[in-house]
Amino acid sequence: MRSNAPIGVLDSGVGGLSVLKVLHQMLPQENFIYVGDTARTPYGSRSEAEIRQFVEEIISWLERQGVKQVVIACNTLTILGIDSLKKEHPFELIGMSKGEQLLLEASKKKKIGVFATQFTISTEAHKKAILAADSSAEVYPMACPKFVPLIEGEQFGDPAVAEAVAEYAAPLKEAGIDALILSCTHYPFIKDVVEAEFGEVVTVIDPAEATAKLSKDSLEVNGLLNNEEQGSVKICCTADLERVKRLAARMLPAEACQFQEISLIP
After folding, report:
1. pTM for the complete prediction?
2. Which of 62, 146, 242, 252 is deepest in the core (most CB within 10 A)?
3. For the chain, what is the domain count?
């Protein structure tokens, strides 16, 4: 496998662009191909069998592009156990980190909040990971169903965003948390609003950093780090190309990216 082969990054929509941003910052010499399945998003209303089929189609498309690794930039897909697809492909699949070590390092009081989708909260995946690392920690999960529609609708300046953040933050502030993880890849789009609501007493963590570190470490171990000076970024979607361009511009410099609307089926 060539070291200058691209890294694939996938999501059901645009949330994974926040992960692509961190990957590109940590690995600027790498070539990236991002795929957002915007024609079929959201996956939340789909059956598990459908979701697995869709993800397999994206991974197979990326395989045809000659990728050397695929990062699954979605907490829901990671929790569903998409890692089980690893044995079917000749490259490594990297799922989203739960960020438990970053949280425990940031939290002096060991009172930790989790902002996530209802599905992610229902699995208790983050709570279990945090308590496995430190059984004395207190975990306060909060489902945030209003966030994704606001972000997908590009309502960033709308007072409804700050109102939703304040609503979900209130119980966690009352609990006295001092660290919070954004456990949905959409949420970093409004990280500034979340940080403003909690103030300096709470450290807000994006697990994309830990995920990017997993990607880098895997490439290093396998001798696949690219030695070129500057890599490339190609952002592909299955629908709504202009909207994807606008949202990508919030995460990455537009001049650094190529864009393409694609069909996943050959």
Report:
1. 0.94
2. 62
3. 2
pLDDT of residue 80: 83
Let me know whether 176 and 196 are in one domain. Answer: yes
In which domain, by residue range, is 192 found?
100-206
Pair (111, 196) in one structural domain? yes
- CATH at residue 32: 3.40.50.1860
Reduced 3-state DSSP string for the chain:
CCCCCCEEEEECCCCCHHHHHHHHHHCCCCCEEEEECCCCCCCCCCCHHHHHHHHHHHHHHHHHCCCCEEEECCHHHHHCCHHHHHHHCCCEEECCCCCHHHHHHHCCCCEEEEEECHHHHHHCHHHHHHHHHCCCCEEEEEECCCHHHHHHCCCCCCHHHHHHHHHHHHHHHHHCCCEEEECCCCHHHHHHHHHHHHHHHCEEECCHHHHHHHHHHHHHHCCCCCCCCCCCEEEEECCCHHHHHHHHCCCCCHHHEEEEECCCCC
- Residue numbers annotated as active site: 74, 184
Give residue 83's pLDDT: 61
